[in-house]
């Protein structure tokens, strides 16, 4: 009786090469993702925005506007911030959340903690 040793050799070689290439791909993609995450938030800036009905804020990433908020988020009325300080308080919170790679949404609780007049 003859045994087919080539198939066994092929399977072993294939598994070894496949696992090695998969690990190499995983390491490379992890490294690229890390580089992207480090450079992604590098150019985030905050600016106040004066409008007819009050104040707002703009968040830019490398001079490209990513958020333009001219009204107070979360509240039912479409009302602008009363002063520049309030707009920048909320803008700084959003900026902090973006830099931490979390959702930049603002809650009513955030507005209360920041003492924003609604």
From TrEMBL:
<dbReference type="Pfam" id="PF16250">
    <property type="entry name" value="DUF4907"/>
</dbReference>
<feature type="transmembrane region" description="Helical">
    <location>
        <begin position="18"/>
        <end position="37"/>
    </location>
</feature>
<protein>
    <submittedName>
        <fullName>DUF4907 domain-containing protein</fullName>
    </submittedName>
</protein>
<dbReference type="InterPro" id="IPR032593">
    <property type="entry name" value="DUF4907"/>
</dbReference>
<keyword id="KW-1133">Transmembrane helix</keyword>
<keyword id="KW-0472">Membrane</keyword>
<keyword id="KW-0812">Transmembrane</keyword>
